[in-house]
Design a protein that fits this description.
Rossmann fold, 2 domains, Arc Repressor Mutant, subunit A, three-stranded antiparallel beta sheet, alpha/beta, seven-stranded parallel beta sheet
Length: 255
């Protein structure tokens, strides 16, 4: 029996990230699936911008280099992320409880909220904990679970159960892709599930993302767009795309 699709996608991406090239024949044997299945997976990943198909295989794209490792991803589009988080921080008030997920964009929110008083932050992100733990005006709660060393975050049923025990005023979250029609998606199921758990237990949800993620689907659809009230993004958002989200009832903040 071959791997399920999520495991296949992760195997392909890791192979391309590590070596720069992967062959269809090699993948067919490693994944125990047909050549047609491999080619469909490669087509999906090419359409998502994560690799480029070549004769007999595929090569990595720039996006693949930053897909899994937190320390690489946090440097990508740094100035845009800073601007987005500076805008989002205006909505964080004293005496609130907020969720911050493990995304590299949401991580940059930390430096913009350290002046708040009596703030509680609940997160599954180890870098968020490290950034905020020495500020006496901020109480940090790390949800427990299985730690992913590359993403520097806790996931799994234990983490999701822990999140469900909190109620937050606001959640500041990320996603691999966002679509008016299909909702929020991720390239990793466990990351999508913990993000959905944060959203379910917050009174208001802010999605922090760069404009390239809007109207884009990634592998795992984990929540409808209706869980989000506000999207904070960069000026690259097209006018037509912005209108679609406003028509869908989403507040768009452009910074």
């Amino acid at each position: 029996m071959g791997m399920d699709r999520e495991l296949r996608i992760r195997h392909i991406l890791r192979s391309v990230e590590g070596r720069g090239y992967v062959a269809v024949r090699e993948l067919r044997h490693a994944l125990s699936v047909s050549e047609m299945t491999v080619r469909r997976d490669l087509e999906f990943l090419e359409n998502s911008g994560y690799l480029i198909r070549k004769h007999g295989g595929a090569v990595r794209s720039e996006a693949t280099n930053n897909l899994f490792r937190f320390d690489r991803r946090v440097k990508e589009n740094r100035h845009l992320k800073e601007a987005v988080c500076a805008a989002a921080a205006r909505f964080v008030r004293d005496n609130e409880t907020i969720f911050i997920d493990c995304g590299t964009t949401a991580f940059r929110l930390c430096r913009h909220i350290v002046g708040r008083k009596n703030l509680r932050v609940v997160t599954n992100s180890l870098p968020v904990v490290a950034e905020l733990m020495n500020h006496p005006n901020i109480k940090v709660s790390l949800v427990g679970g299985d730690v992913d060393a590359e993403r520097r975050a806790a996931y799994g049923a234990a983490a999701e159960h822990a999140v469900a025990r909190y109620r937050a005023d606001k959640a500041f979250l990320g996603a691999g892709g966002v679509s008016v029609e299909r909702g929020l998606s991720s390239f990793d199921q466990k990351e999508g599930e913990i993000t959905a758990a944060f959203a379910r237990n917050a009174r208001s949800v802010f999605l922090l993302c760069d404009s390239t993620k809007l109207e884009r689907d990634t592998f795992y659809l984990f929540a409808p767009l209706s869980i989000v009230q506000t999207i904070v993004t960069d000026p690259g958002i097209a006018s037509a795309v912005k209108r679609r989200y406003v028509t869908a009832g989403i507040t768009i903040i452009v910074k």
